[in-house]
Amino acid sequence: MGEAKFLERLDKEAQLRERRGHGQGKGIFRWEDSFDLYGCIKFCLKVSGLWARGLRNYLDIRVESNEVFLERLAPEFDGFRILQLTDLHADLHPDFAAAVRSAVENVPCDLIVVTGDFRTCTYGDHTGATEAAIEILQGLSAPCYAILGNHDFLIKVPPLEAAGVKFLLNESATIRRGEAALHLTGIDDPNFYKTHDFEHAMRDLPDDGACRVLFSHAPQTHKIAADLGFDLQLSGHTHGGQICLPGGRVVVHDGTAERHLLSGPWREGNMQGYTSRGTGASGLPIRLNCPAEVTVHTLRSE
Q1: Would you state the pLDDT for residue 26?
Q2: 8 A C-beta contact, residue 283 and residue 25
Q3: 3-class secondary structure, 244
Q4: What whole-number distance in Å separates Cα of residue 252 and Cα of residue 266?
Q5: Which CATH number covers residue 92?
Q6: Of the candidates 223, 230, 188, which has an alpha carbon nearest to the alpha carbon of residue 205?
Q7: Strands 293-301, 80-85: pairing kind
Q8: CA 294 to CA 100: how far, in whole Å?
């Protein structure tokens, strides 16, 4: 991922390692270290009678379909399917891993990508989330790529790679079908760690005019990615709001991305993008008017 960014990330991880708080909040979430924000939300949901419904929604994971027409996609890749999981926060609830496996095990795809945030906390032990993620991903037949989010430490990369997950940490990879190529680039977390490095990630990409797909944990890199010539960006991080008003209207978000980037498909110049509502949940195993999702992106050649 580049020595400078690697050392920078390790330094920030060390600051968080023993901290009993997130230390990452923005907007209303900046107060989460000062008082029990999630305890307050949980109390309100219990009193209002919405807790049980929100928990059912959390475990009811939808399979969403997103068809993307890409001008530079080679005909050999027409119909190529990318299954996106994101924001697993896989150690939040004991029934979560089984719920995700049930949602994805019969979903046909050519590639799996996890766009960051494997665990719930931003400090402390990662092993529970890592084991749950392995439980979810093992046995799936398609190749699996991943990037790290703002909740993740580098220490989880070796056990997940040993389980068959290939991380792209400011790196690129190429998939080929005959002479045709599809380039994949993954950058490190641009939200809290800010250790993403496009120059390093793209250093080995050939200038061959082939289609380029970017995996970025947060959607806030959209303008830079479009200027650099990416055709598609896949992101998460926002959870789509997680607890929303009827119709999916976002009540609160951390302000790192414009509202039109918070969930679903969007466009920036010539680049298309998609922000997943997330497969898991953060803080509390609750979703209201904002279903959890895994997403099948079907690439189409124009």
Answers
A1: 58
A2: no
A3: strand
A4: 20
A5: 3.60.21
A6: 230
A7: antiparallel
A8: 8
Condensed to tens digits (0 to 9), the pLDDT of residues 95-152 reads: 999 999 999 999 999 999 999 999 998 887 889 999 999 999 988 989 999 999 999 9
CA distance 78 to 298: 8
Range of the domain at 118: 3-301
Measured CA to CA, the distance from residue 234 to residue 273 in angstroms comes to: 6
Nearest to 170 by CA among 144, 152, 196: 196
How many domains is the chain built from? 1
Burial class (CB in 10 A: 0-12, 13-18, 19+), 29: middle
pLDDT, position 253: 74
Rounded CA-CA distance 276/281 in Å is 12
Strand partners, 267: 272
pLDDT, tens only, 3-32: 999 999 999 999 887 665 455 655 555 545
The one-letter amino acid code at 3 reads E
At 219, give phi and psi (nearest 5°).
-75, -5
Cβ neighbours for 300, distance < 8 A, ≥ 6 positions apart: 67, 68, 69, 70, 73, 78, 79
- CA distances to 101, 178, 300 from 146, in Å: 17, 25, 23
The mean pLDDT of 190-215, rounded to a whole number, is 96
Evaluate whether 126 touches 155 at the Cβ level (below 8 Å): yes
Q: How many CB atoms lie under 10 A from the CB of residue 221?
A: 23
Residues 133 and 117: their CA atoms lie apart, in Å, by 11
Q: Is 234 helix (H, G, I), strand (E, B) or coil?
A: strand
pTM of the model: 0.93
* C-alpha closest to that of 262 among 272, 252, 271: 252
| DSSP secondary structure code for residue 96 in this structure | H
- Measured in whole angstroms, the distance separating CA 41 from the mean position of its chain's CA atoms is 24
